């Protein structure tokens, strides 16, 4: 559990600099340049991600059960991750109304993913991992929307065609992950196939 927590601190800490220390971030970018800052940010984020993945794997070897797992929650979680995938796709497909409405669909997708997974969480490591991402994503989304309002930032209106493309990309990514990659990467098949 120690490595999982360390990984979360490093990974989410790097992703929280803008939330808690935006002036520090701006000063560092001015001092070392944007490309160097992005390089350091990427290296720290990757190190944190590797630590949290490894730590989660270690915690799964000796799980601390909090309550009994129920099968139906796994299906609900799997289905609720579909909108999370669509939201993540909305962050990258230009000209969709989902991004125009939500503003920061990537962070909203992380929130949805975390809530969905907390529904089927039954070990301490699950609750720590998904609860941490949920807390971070709520703080980040609030911070981002506050900055948008202060700067007068708005997203251009999207089109129905781009919405359909966003939903198709998110849906296909969800299908591939839910039916093949989740089992291969995580060791658990959401639909038991």
Care to describe what's here?
α1 packs antiparallel against α4 (34-61) and α5 (71-92) packs antiparallel against α7 (105-119). It contains nine helices and no strands. It has helices spanning 2-14, 17-20, 22-32, 34-61, 71-92, 97-102, 105-119, 124-151, 160-186. The longest helix has 28 residues, at 34-61. The chain folds into two domains: 1-62; 64-193, no CATH class. The chain is mostly helical and 193 residues long.
Notable characteristics:
193 residues; mainly alpha; single chain; globular; 80% helix
Number of domains: 2
Output mean pLDDT. Answer: 93
Poorly predicted sequence stretches spanning 5 or more consecutive residues? none
Kindly estimate the percentage of residues that lie in beta strands according to DSSP: under 5%
* Helix and strand element order: HHHHHHHHH
Q: The biggest beta sheet, please?
A: none
Tell me the Rg in angstroms.
Answer: 18 Å
Brief digest:
With 193 residues, the protein is mainly α. The protein is built from 9 helices and no strands.
Secondary structure blueprint with pairings:
Blueprint: H1 2-14, H2 17-20, H3 22-32, H4 34-61, H5 71-92, H6 97-102, H7 105-119, H8 124-151, H9 160-186
Helix pairs in contact: 1-4, 1-8, 3-4, 5-7, 5-9, 7-8
């Amino acid at each position: 559990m120690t490595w999982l927590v360390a990984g979360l601190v490093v990974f989410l800490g790097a992703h929280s600099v803008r939330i808690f220390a935006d002036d520090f971030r701006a000063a560092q970018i001015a001092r070392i340049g944007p490309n160097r800052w992005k390089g350091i940010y990427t290296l720290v984020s990757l190190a944190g991600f590797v630590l949290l993945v490894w730590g989660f794997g270690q915690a799964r070897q000796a799980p601390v059960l909090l309550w009994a797992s129920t099968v139906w929650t796994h299906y609900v979680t799997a289905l609720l991750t579909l909108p999370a995938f669509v939201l993540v796709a909305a962050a990258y497909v230009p000209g969709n109304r989902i991004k125009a409405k939500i503003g920061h669909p990537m962070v909203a997708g992380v929130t949805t993913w975390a809530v969905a997974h907390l529904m089927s969480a039954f070990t301490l490591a699950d609750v720590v991992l998904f609860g941490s991402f949920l807390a971070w994503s709520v703080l980040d989304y609030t911070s981002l929307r506050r900055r948008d309002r202060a700067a007068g930032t708005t997203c251009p209106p999207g089109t129905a065609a781009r919405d359909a493309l966003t939903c198709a990309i998110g849906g296909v990514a969800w299908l591939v992950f839910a039916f093949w990659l989740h089992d291969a990467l995580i060791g658990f098949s959401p639909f038991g196939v």
